[in-house]
Predict the structure.
Amino acid sequence: MSDEVGRDRDVAITSREGAWHQSKISTLLDLCARQYGLEYILKIPTNPKPWSAAGTAYHAGCEAHENARLNGKPAITFEQQLEAALSHLDREIEGLDPSIWTDDGPDEMRKQVEMATYHFWYTPTKVEGLSIRDYLLTMTPVVIEGYFRTQLIEETLPLGGWFDGLYKKADGSLTLIDHKTANSLSNWKPDGEGHRAQAAFYSAALTHSSDYPQVTELLPMEYLIVRKTKGRGKFEGSRIVRVAPDLADVAQMGYRTREAQRILDTEDYTRNPSSNLCSEKFCPFYSQCEGANGDLSKGSLWLAWPEVKEQYKG
């Protein structure tokens, strides 16, 4: 692993220490509280998640493209963006144990990054009729890869994290941008349902943060989604999903954050009795737990929390 990638990961990890991030709340409340306890509290070492490498690399390419615009530099080409993304991917997978790769090996990941970048540049969305790149060119970047950390909710940890971009539209309004990759668009409904919690988290945090004085009201979040695959006929390679969080969404976000804090304070890291996300792909502890089967004798992590904590102390 290069020093650059190592520093990037260190910053990403330490920036979330002592703070609630949307992914941490989602892991705790929507996936498995036990997984959260093992990963974030006991900090049991795990292998990287190879299935996320293509998305991370694609983001690196988008960041290179938009940083050039933000800094007034010449626009980069498709080839340069793809090179930046693939170079990032190569650094991500450098030295990884080959046994952690499943169906999506390094060669497949490179194909996915290339296809996602192609859709970013050339595939028009159905509603706007513009590619994701051309759509971004209608706006002015204000912040790219911004960080926030703010004490928004009393008696909980602060909210913290990174966002892909803050943009000014032609009419002068601001919007938050989040880049996503997907194998399928089935989870990305045009009305944005299922993603309001994340939108409210970022929008409320930036509204409250003193680091972004230009954000004075709840902003919409625009998810710019590209497929990592190709298709035929009416295949939809990219989509823009807009979510405009309101006060009800912020109230729900506050409830979720307080519930996450309650679990943290009481160490209520219960085992997940059943979930379609309880698998080796989504949980690095699955082979030692296998809790979805409900068999208490299954693994060393399928124990009461005090026993697991005792097992891993020190």
The chain is about 40% helix and 15% strand. Strands lie at 140-150, 159-168, 174-182, 221-227, 238-243. Residues 247-266 form the longest helix (20 residues). Residues 1-14 have pLDDT under 50 and may be disordered.
